[in-house]
User: Fold this.
Amino acid sequence: MNRSRIRRLCTLVSATYGLPHDTLAYLATAKSRYPVLFRAAALRHIVRNAPLSVTLGQPFAAARRRVRRHYGI
Assistant:
């Protein structure tokens, strides 16, 4: 990713901080409504807030796959 895209992702992650889980899940699944980076920012919060029983302490990429499978995203 180039710097402007990384900066925009960081801005979106900050903007989605503190949103409730159901809102984040809606944002992550609304493909036709929101851009890819916005959905990625929402998914990042879902993964970090997921219980340890779902992520099993895996690194981020593996935890993301497990969370997507668990929540059906």
About this structure: The first helix runs from residue 3 to 16. Residues 6 and 37 are 9 Å apart (CA to CA). The two ends are 23 Å apart (CA to CA).
